[in-house]
Amino acid sequence: MKAYDGMYIDGAWRPAAGPDVIEIVGPADEQVIATVPAGTVEDVDAAVRAARAALPAWAATPPAERAARLAALRDQLHARRDEIAATVTAELGAPEKLSQTVHAGVPVAVAGSYAELASTYSFEEKIGNSTVYHEPVGVVAAITPWNYPLHQIVAKAAPALAAGCTIVVKPAENTPLVARIFAECVHEAGVPAGVFNLVTGLGAVAGQALAEHPDVDLLSFTGSTAVGRRIGAIAAGMVKRVALELGGKSANVILPSADLARAVNVGVANVMSNSGQTCSAWTRMLVHRDRYDEAVELAAAAAAKYGDRIGPLVSARQRDRVRGYIEKGVAEGARLVAGGPEAPRPQGWYVSPTVLADVTPDMTVAQEEIFGPVLCVLPYEDEEDALRIANGTVYGLAGAVWAGDEAEAVAFARRMDTGQVDINGGRFNPLAPFGGYKQSGVGRELGVHGLTEYLQTKSLQF
């Protein structure tokens, strides 16, 4: 076990204000692997003050120089990919291959995309007799989740830095170790002191203090909708800008003309990735009643292949929560066709890849975000029924549509109340805007739309 000390504030690792620490427990073996300082209100205040002091100079730094620092950060992340992947595997429990390709690989691409955008985006434009300037919003408070611990930091920090903002990051208490590596990469990339700051700690203490700090101009939060509501209320009360990326209950709509086997297999893989701990996972599979039994059989067979391929959940609490949802689904009338609530291994916070059939739209498992390797398969009667079911939750983060004809799939997707839809297995695009409708959030991340979240406009008339 390693005991980490200090917070990254104003360009250096500084001792924490208080003596308390947080134990980081490995989900695979339930052993303490490290401790980090539990940040206090004093630590948060020091970080915000450093960010505020660094803001004028960083905001005035030419975009080309900001782009150069981001390019150096991208290179640092790439150089430490193996270490990053190993750290995520240890603290989150993600399988090594997933840690390499997604948890370590995607942040490199995202950081690189903002290095490019910082040098090409038009921070100034002419509109009639006006000159419009796109200026940094100011000091950003970023509160990030545990499920994609590095990606979510980069998805906030990179555009904030590109825009000319300064930032304080409070990572999830479950997975703060990779955040410390990121701070080291920022330092080695030559980002000036105070521009990026890191405070580890509990959400109820450090997160609350950060959200309520009067010198924070924008709150960027990724996590549960329940916490997002509280963050939004704090922001509204202080008239702060807010960006919220929240929960999802995404529909995977398989139209009758689709390649059923491919749609089901890709859909199951999507749900099981990262042990189901993905807000945009297609956790509701909608299949026409004429092919429903075949789809259920295919889904059960596909899920069975993931029994020894997925990692544990992040914590005992999360494991128990997911098991509780499985039990509730069965109690409400769902049919268990793969997996179940029983512990698949004697050690570690594992949940079996699970498929629930005969799910109806009003069941709890069809309405609430489970955040585990659990797929619900729902039948529909016709296209209008499928659309009603797909749009019938409070969420609208992501989704998928499958059809033999691409135009048919696009026409259906355009009617879905959701922020991002994959057509016939479309690939992830780190430049496309990501974010939700309804209670899945406010604002967008990634690409140019992610950059504009951190900008405000000023017009001069001549």
SSE topology:
Blueprint: E1 2-3, E2 7-9, E3 12-14, E4 21-25, E5 32-37, H1 41-60, H2 63-79, H3 81-92, H4 96-120, E6 124-127, E7 130-136, E8 139-143, H5 151-163, E9 166-170, H6 177-188, E10 196-198, H7 203-212, E11 218-222, H8 225-238, E12 241-245, E13 251-254, H9 260-272, E14 284-288, H10 292-304, H11 316-331, E15 335-338, E16 354-357, H12 364-367, E17 374-380, H13 383-390, E18 399-402, H14 406-413, E19 422-423, E20 441-442, H15 447-452, E21 455-461
Parallel strand pairs: 1-5, 8-9, 8-11, 9-10, 11-12, 13-14, 13-18, 14-17, 16-17, 18-19
Antiparallel strand pairs: 2-3, 4-5, 6-7, 7-21, 12-20, 15-16
Helix pairs in contact: 1-7, 2-4, 2-5, 2-6, 3-4, 4-5, 9-10
Which key features would you list for this structure?
462 residues, single chain, 6-stranded mixed β-sheet, alpha/beta, 15 helices, 7-stranded mixed β-sheet
Structure notes:
This is Aldehyde dehydrogenase family protein. This protein has about 450 residues and is an alpha/beta fold. The chain is about 40% helix and about 20% strand. Helix 5 links the parallel strand 8 (about 140-145) and strand 9 (about 165-170). The N and C termini lie far apart (about 65 Å). The mean pLDDT is about 100.
- Which shape, going by the Cα principal axes? globular
Low-pLDDT ranges: none
Biggest β-sheet strands, sense, barrel: 7 strands, mixed
Tally of separate helices: 15
- Estimated share of beta-strand residues: 15-25%
Instruction: State the strand order across the main sheet.
Output: 15-16-17-14-13-18-19
State the helical fraction.
40-55%
Query: Averaged pLDDT, please?
Result: 98
Structural class by secondary-structure content:
alpha/beta
Distance between the termini: 64 Å
